[in-house]
Amino acid sequence: DVKVTQSSRYLVKRTGEKVFLECVQDMDHENMFWYRQDPGLGLRLIYFSYDVKMKEKGDIPEGYSVSREKKERFSLILESASTNQTSMYLCASSTKTGYTFGSGTRLTVV
Amino acid sequence: AQSVTQPDIHITVSEGASLELRCNYSYGATPYLFWYVQSPGQGLQLLLKYFSGDTLVQGIKGFEAEFKRSQSSFNLRKPSVHWSDAAEYFCAVTNYGGATNKLIFGTGTLLAVQP
User: Above 60 in pLDDT, residue A89?
Assistant: First the structure.
């Protein structure tokens, strides 16, 4: 089975910190995604990447950036964390046969 | 704009009763449709998906969904709900024919099961 691994299950960071959320997939998937999940809002797409060094903005990219230097790794970066970025963050990878999600990182910004 | 609507935020059913969760989509291209379930503190688990062919799709845990193009709907059903089905359910749509296959989610339906 494909595995998508998010490096941290829970994170607590201070306002203004630079935060890195890491995601690694163990298959040769070209497409990778970062979503944030908030109650009542479902999952909203932040950024996605369809190849190494390629990235596209999703629906809510403000305050975030991403990096994809290797095919298996897709990093989400909060340049200066703010309290409104407290959320659950989900990474996913996909091929034509489907999507696989990581377990999520619950980020709290204090 | 592409979107998915799940009109029911919360649903409560009795154990053993039937269940139908509604999903409507707005998508210009041929849609590929999914239902995911998320138990508290857990990640997303795929219940079923529709790409083409038979419009009635069978999934895991006894769930099924029917694609109705004329109604732009993909409702999820289960004939008899178990207490372990209490979770949040998400409908999602994408288009694999496109260059980038981003998945668009609805806002979710939270299911409670009464004993």
Answer: yes
